[in-house]
Design a protein that fits this description.
By secondary structure, the chain is of the alpha+beta class. Helix content is 16%, strand content 21%.
Length: 73
């Protein structure tokens, strides 16, 4: 590896929405800095199983379902 071209890899503290925190290494921010997350796995619907529904906009979903209905049993 070439010297002097890589960013500093240091520890930071990551603060989650529920108040918990953990230390990890990153190139972001300052050494021993703090990252506060707006969205994290404890609050995001993709990880919590929140409201997951398909919205049919302009009939696209209906056309797709009609076209490929024979493939789904």
């Amino acid at each position: 590896m070439k010297k002097g071209i890589h960013p500093d890899y240091h520890f930071v503290t990551v603060q989650l929405n529920d108040g918990t925190s953990y230390r990890t290494r990153t190139t972001w921010g300052e050494k021993d800095g703090k990252i506060t997350l707006d969205i994290d796995p404890s609050t995001h619907p993709a990880w919590t199983g929140g409201q997951q529904q398909l919205i049919d906009r302009g009939g696209r979903l209906s056309r797709f379902n009609k076209r490929f209905a024979q493939f789904v049993k």
